[in-house]
Amino acid sequence: MDDEIRRDIREIRRDLADLRREIGTLVPSCQQSSQSALSEMRRGVSGPLLRHQSFEISAGLEENMVQDCRMHQTCHAFFTDLLLKNASLLRSRSEGDATEQVNANRALLSEQQAKSPFPSCSICFSQAWQIIDHQVDLLRSLRLYRDQPDRTDLEDLDGEILLRDILEPLSNRQRLQILKALSVRERSFSALSEITGLKGGNLLFHLDRLSQSGLILQRHERGDYLISERGYSLLVAVAALPSLVRDWALHEGSRSSEGQDTER
Question: What domains can you pick out in the chain, each with its CATH number?
Answer without folding.
Answer: 2-141 (no CATH), 159-239 (1.10.10.10)
